[in-house]
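REVIEWER CHECKLIST
Item 1: Sequence provided? yes
Item 2: Single chain? yes
Item 3: Sequence as submitted:
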Amino acid sequence: MRVLRHLAARHRTRATNHTLGLMLAFNAGAMNAGGFMAVHMYTSHMTGFLATLADSLVIGEFALVLAAIGALWAFMSGAGTTAILVNWARQQHLGGAYALPLLLEAVLMLLFGLLGAALQQWPTPFAVPLTVLLLAFMMGLQNAVVTKMSSAQIRTTHMTGVVTDLGIELGKMLYWNRAGTPRAARVRANRQRVRLFASLLLLFTGGGVVGAAGFQTFGFVWVVPQAALLLALSLPPLLADAQRLAAWWRARRGDGA
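Item 4: Structure as written out by the authors:
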């Protein structure tokens, strides 16, 4: 329980950032791949939606234009919601600043898992079912959590930046430093970053396999165990905050009496 409390707590270390980032990369891979099997769209890929928006404007496919706008709006709304929740928690000096958006994501995942089939039939003004907007919102929510907690050093919902950074470090590893090159001028790879980026890729891919197999076997309900994991991550720091706030309130009432 103590470990879980620190993983989503306000005060960060490199170890907690990496551990939480890896767990959320697995979650994102599972939601992305399983979500694709449910809605036939990769709802974390905003680059793809922007390309779809541009292409569809040119060829006159305005339903796809609306779909792309809806996904972009939902993703940005999720990221904005994380910013609001984290900054509010910081101003209140709460320890579970990053736990709040994770709790919201867990609740939305439960909604997706238990009511996904019904939500799939729920139309929206964006020419896509509500499930697409829900998945995009959750991906924006999670991506902003990891971005804020790691100062933009870790991403979990899309791997383009991770693959790029891994390629840079591998290039440094292969670089031949000439004999006699001063130590300060030598090109050296950051092996810790190599391990981190490789682990993010592996866990995202593994999550994708689990998500796709889970949806194919169980349908929408495959999300419920993942939602339970996020609940386990988010609830301990929030419960600690609730106990601290309750003690503060009792003390304040005592002073007033």
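Item 5: Key structural point noted by reviewer: The chain has nine helices and no strands.
Item 6: Recommendation: ____
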